[in-house]
Amino acid sequence: MKSHILQRLGNSTAAVSGEILRTELNTSRVTVWKHIQKLQELGYDIRSAGNGYTLHSSPDIPYPWEFPERENRIHYHPELLSTMDAARELGRKNCPRFTAVIAGRQTGGRGRLQRQWFSDEGGLYFTVIIRPQIPPLLASRVNFAASLTMALVLREMFGIDAGVKWPNDILVNEKKIMGMLSEMETGADMVSFISIGMGINVNNDPTLSEPNAVSLKQLVGHEVSKKELLRAFLDAFEKRMDTLDYDRIVEEWKKYTITIGRDVRIVTTQDVSEGRAADVDRDGSLILENADGMQKRVIYGDCFHQNS
């Protein structure tokens, strides 16, 4: 009902009466009033007059009813320990594909190698659950599809030169704007689900905790709608996954990478490797070349550009 009320008010230049809303929703005027009152409590500027209701502004919060076509797949929480943890539980309960868990802020957000992910208010923090019918061997390629999709969305929406850094960060002018983490669960010899978590610096100031970072607000000079960014990504990512060519996705990703050809340092829980990023193979592994020309295949790790 909230979704219908907001759509109806948002699409009307004149006030919409409670009677019209009651008729369209096949409910009572008291029920309509209760929903409008709840929306007002949540920050929607809905004003009432003798001839009905008008919507003057909406909060930039990704409530489920803001996504009518996805309403049953959107789980928004003002605060969570971690969207990845919540998504894992939903995935195990057989939630629909492309279910998304979003948090206004995270108190225990994490990045790769169990590093803390700072989740200041104003950023966009979410995990999307997908269920590709693939063997685990192909799962890593989904990460490249996700980071590429977000980079292209950022380019199209904001006109910024978003580049992908191996394995799955997004940078603009050498400054980090997004980090990504994924987890997979399998059943028999197939993927059961993959959880892809993203933390995007939108309207927050990330430099307080990470000096070499930047936000969309800092780049474009004004606040950005987190709702519109999330909607654009979910639509684009679902469309991409429905037709994904697993044999070509890494090649497409490489068109936008800023890692290949750079001197890099790769940090894992076991060791540190340095060399030139010579290539990324079809499975997403980094081909690292040392000073003697010897090559090493690196499957995972944190990547630091040395000559940025």
Relative helix content: 25-40%
Count of helix runs: 8
Order of helices and strands: HHHEEEHEEHEEEEHHHEEEEE
* Number of distinct beta strands: 14
Strand content: 25-35%
**CATH class division of the largest domain:** Alpha Beta
Contiguous low-pLDDT stretches (5 residues minimum) are none
Q: What's the arrangement of strands in the largest beta sheet?
A: 3-4-5-9-8-7-6
**Could you say which overall geometry the principal axes of the C-alpha atoms support?**
elongated
**What is the SS-derived class?**
alpha+beta
What is the compact description of this entry?
By secondary structure, the chain is α+β, with helices and mostly antiparallel strands.
Secondary-structure blueprint:
Layout: H1 2-10, H2 18-25, H3 29-41, E1 45-49, E2 52-57, E3 74-80, H4 83-92, E4 99-106, E5 124-130, H5 139-158, E6 162-165, E7 169-172, E8 175-187, E9 190-200, H6 216-220, H7 226-242, H8 249-254, E10 263-267, E11 272-280, E12 286-289, E13 295-298, E14 302-305
Parallel strand pairs: 3-4
Antiparallel strand pairs: 1-2, 4-5, 5-9, 6-7, 7-8, 8-9, 10-11, 10-14, 11-12, 12-13
Helix pairs in contact: 2-3, 5-7
